[in-house]
């Protein structure tokens, strides 16, 4: 059974796809045909370099056209990535005996258990007893690591990068990220967008919050000086004025993207600053790291935002939490962007922050969680306990 | 690290492999040859790709892990499945045949 016959010639044939196994003869068997003898190929053996991968039909085009990679560090469980999706790879063993028969004209020589030559009518040969196959299951991209890598060294205005290897520490190119992060190209790009990362000099970077504030302040300052309406700032003017103030096109465009949307009008580009995103940035700045009384915070926030914009507490969903302490309401920063991305860890972090959540408070902190095949209701059932004191009362969610 | 899955054969002409599957470890039943199994040709719900691991820089330095590539060398869409108990043959058979696949009754 475990005859290990290494035959260089036969091995090469298998590699070329002309395995000399006669698979066609076996597959072509139908009622009434002549019998087909099956024997061990002279190269029958463990062939550990051959693996079987189970792939649904919709995955075949990507697999057969070289658009698929396997990603992960040696200590991680490997995932398979198409251009847009990530799949976990699980080896599933079988207790059945699965004899693999390669295609191609069967070779004359066959191996028999008694080591005598096969007879003339042997027309199919098996080269391996497959122990099982790899199954693919759609999975969420593993992006927690992306966030921690990109936070190692945020971009700071006026930074000077050296050229030697030590200075490249904490900097990652697209190729580096493809090797380190278990996500498809599409999901990786989405993840970089969610982190507001930008590619600077070939490295993907997050931008330091103080630097973002400086650039935003400068854009707003110039908008007053040059009478640019905040809903239609002329791109060319903004870029050239900001450049003369010492800010590169790249970083200014990044900030415009972060706080606004581009509008094309009469072959010119304008930027419309988004009230909510700009106000949120100012709220984070006003609040800092500590707790504030709501009234004090609102006062500080409203005085800081650009004129013409209106601050609204609703803008701070998923960023700021209110807390009633006696007669006073206090606020503190609690950003969804800092919470873990896997559902179990996310809910654990939420319930560490406060043991009870109302739906309207909880929803902004879990709406970005996406798990293939699981609805948000499914997540709630799995990780929370829902109580409703009376039919009219708001449901309360606690840890399960 | 990143392992590329390559395919030289192209989508339309990927060589098709076959599988003969026996329930249980029953390979030797054929060797004896006193038993007959009835099998059926089954189309796999999901095809199986035959991949081959290939090291592309075998003689690189010690510190670099070898670059590995996975090459698609075939596809399996059908298998001949023998899942029933073997039927004892009453008449004595010549013990020549190791395994004989009889045409499946359609």
Walk me through what this model shows.
The complex is a heterodimer of chains A (400) and B (106). Chain A is α+β, with helices and mostly antiparallel strands. Chain A has helices spanning 8-16, 23-27, 60-64, 144-150, 174-180, 185-194, 209-225, 235-244, 249-259, 275-287, 294-304, 343-353, 359-366, 376-383, and strands at 36-41, 50-54, 68-71, 79-81, 86-101, 110-111, 122-126, 128-139, 198-200, 203-205, 233-234, 260-265, 268-273, 291-293, 320-325, 328-333, 357-358, 384-387, 396-399. Chain A has 14 helices and 19 strands. Chain A has a four-stranded antiparallel beta sheet, with helices on one face. Residues 1-17 of chain A have low confidence and may be disordered. Chain B is mainly beta. Mean pLDDT of chain B is 72; it is low at 25-32. The interface between A and B is large, with 66 and 58 residues. β2 (50-54) of chain A pairs antiparallel with β4 of chain B. Chain B: InterPro entries: Ctf8. Chain B: It comes from Miscanthus lutarioriparius. Chain B: This is Chromosome transmission fidelity protein 8.
Question: What keyword list fits this structure?
Answer:
heterodimer; A: 400 residues; alpha+beta; Arc Repressor Mutant, subunit A; 3-stranded mixed β-sheet; 19 strands; 24% strand; B: 106 residues; mainly beta; 1 helix; 7 strands; elongated; Ctf8 (chain B); Chromosome transmission fidelity protein 8 (chain B); Dcc1 (chain A); DNA replication (chain A); Sister chromatid cohesion protein DCC1 (chain A)
